[in-house]
Specification:
It contains four helices and no strands. By secondary structure, it is mainly α. The protein is globular, with a radius of gyration of 13 Å. The termini are far apart.
C-alpha cells in the first residue's frame, strides 16, 4: 500500500497540488493504512463492514466530524487513483458523520 500512496502523492504533485495539500493527504492515508494494519485488513478487499469500522475507528480517536469526512474523502480519492490492475476495487459508501 505504501508504494501506491507514494505514487498517488507524486500524481498530486504533478497536478500542481500544494505542499500542504500533499502533506494532509499523506497524513490521512497513513491513518487508513494504520487502521488496515491494526485490523489485519488487506486494503484491496475493504468492504462495507470495514469501511464503517474505519469511520468508527476515526470517531473513537476523538476527531471532529469535518476531519473524519476529510479523511474519508482522501481515502476515496486514493481508491479512484488506483492503477488499472486495482480497478475492480471501490471503497464502499461511508456515510458522513
Amino acid at each position: 500500500m505504501q508504494e501506491l500512496i507514494v505514487r498517488y502523492l507524486e500524481e498530486l504533485k504533478a497536478m500542481g497540488c500544494s505542499h500542504h495539500t500533499m502533506k494532509m493527504y499523506a497524513y490521512h492515508l497513513k491513518k487508513f493504512e494504520c487502521f488496515c494494519q491494526e485490523r489485519g485488513i488487506d486494503f484491496r478487499s475493504v468492504n462495507g463492514k470495514e469501511s464503517r469500522a474505519f469511520r468508527g475507528w476515526l470517531i473513537s480517536q476523538g476527531l471532529a466530524p469535518k476531519t473524519i469526512n476529510t479523511i474519508i474523502s482522501a481515502v476515496k480519492a486514493f481508491y479512484d487513483f488506483l492503477p488499472v490492475s486495482y480497478t475492480h476495487l471501490t471503497l464502499p459508501t461511508i456515510y458522513s458523520v
